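Worked Example 4.2. Read the sequence first, then its structure tokens.
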Amino acid sequence: MQSSASVDNWRHSHVFDEGNPLAERNTCWAVVLTAVMMVAEIVGGLMFNSMALLADGWHMSSHALALGLSVLAYGAARRFAHDVRFAFGTWKIEVLGGYTSAVFLVGVAGLMLYQSVERLFSPSPIHYDQAISIAMVGLLINLACAWLLKDSHSHHHGHHEHDSHHHHDLNLRSAYLHVLADAATSMLAILALIGGKFLGANWLDPVMGIVGAGLVAIWAYGLLRDTGRVLLDAEMNAPVVAEIREVIDASPIKADITDLHVWRVGKGKYASILSLAVTDAAEPDDFRRQLSIHEELVHVTVEVNLLRG
């Protein structure tokens, strides 16, 4: 049994994620830019009788709301970072923000599909020149927001590069997908408006809307899947789980895993509860030291049970 001069040696912080202040600031700017463009498109749609612009403006309003949600999630995670009610920190508030944004994206895709099908069967006259001009400005704004929110992958590259996908900021990714969806639909709207103006192909506008709805739905599904796994702790197939098993199998102290739980507590950071059965006397610290080579394991609890023959 090990002894120590102070109980503080075993105390540790439950703040496992350092946050993302740059992403939070850039998301704030994206909210402002998106809201300004939303108003411009709605006013332009009403003035020039463009259903395409009006629909895109209201579509953009849902994105502004979702981006605002991402900002609130960052703020809440930071504010409650040291609140003792959160057993494993507040990072999952950001993940919850990303999940909720993905739900908004599903709604956006459904609304786009409905409006596009409706416009396909009930076309309305469009003032093409004005509509194209505003749509191009909207595209530039969307691209500026996408540049602000693009994940620079500034996470820590530990010695597990194969798991780098799990280091991404899911809240930032949700905001990025919202502006990317806006940029894609703006681009499709511009192509459709140009086709309608020069080729007389009025059907292009609603068809491009249907294509855009499909793209948004695909992005939303991917985000729902990734954030849902984290929120439900459904990541026992993560590479780090196999790595824990490998360490125990290679241990100089013969041990069998009788129970193992692994879940994420930050970007690329995991907690684990490990129960072992041993035939020779051993201390939990013996196994914690062996597992410490995996830097992504930031909170490890080991229980050792001695088998008596």
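Now turn to a second chain, presented in exactly the same format:
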Amino acid sequence: MMSFDQNAFLIILTASMIAISCGLLGVFMMLRKMSMTGDAISHAVLPGIVIGFLVSGTQRGLEVIIGAGILGILATLMIDWLRKKARVQLDASIGITFTLLFAIGIILISVFAYRVDLDQECVLYGEIAYLPIDLWISSSGQSFGPRIMWLAILNLLLVGGFIALFYKELKITSFDEKFGIVIGIPASAINLGLMSMVSYTTVSSFEAVGAILVVALLVVPPATAYLWTRDLRPLIQFTILTGILVSVIGYYLAYLFDSSIAGMMVTVAGIVFFLSVILTHKKFKFSLGTQKETQPFSS
């Protein structure tokens, strides 16, 4: 029982940190109406992962993260170029970019399949249940605990530091990019920095939870929070709370039903979102009814 409790704590802690990192970035992606760019990046980085794997010979090499990060930035630049220069709609720009780069990644896997032990499934689907046995062991043989947990801590520090450092710039350019440019904020650089953080966080979280959960954590908690509040600070706080709630409930339901942890977390996130839709809709109707009833007395 002690082993289960310890493993459960490590998995929930790591999943919560990944959820917070993705959620924090997802808030600003949502405000910029670019939520699905995270999905595009999660697929577009496949060529970078393959090239990094070919160079390093391992899925855990730094070259994999660097290659994926470069492709993530390239995907961002392509989407931005198609939207601004080629005057293609944002959704079409995202679709064109991620399908093209993802297809190139699949071709690379097919061409070099005889040289590397790599396929689409191991790239795109992680399993956080293996976290307690995937340890970070030094050259002297000392164990520092789960490797992915330390990576999640690093991700959270980097994302938190980035948002804290550029909070004002992110806030202004997310709500009114043209006004930000007028007052001297380098909106393009801020946007590129945000996309770079999304690329890094997405790729580094693949191995732990997989692309599907990463995309869900980028989109669903911020969207759920947005149903309850429009103020930025409460929006961020509610997003963090939702991510933690999804991680805790999702893990224990997966354990109860002996199912995929990542899949259950996504399911819980969806249920929480739709419950919020129902509750906020009723709250909105109630507030309208109250205003109508009290209107004759307000004058």
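Notes for the reader: The chain has a mean pLDDT of 81. Residues 86 and 252 are 48 Å apart (CA to CA).
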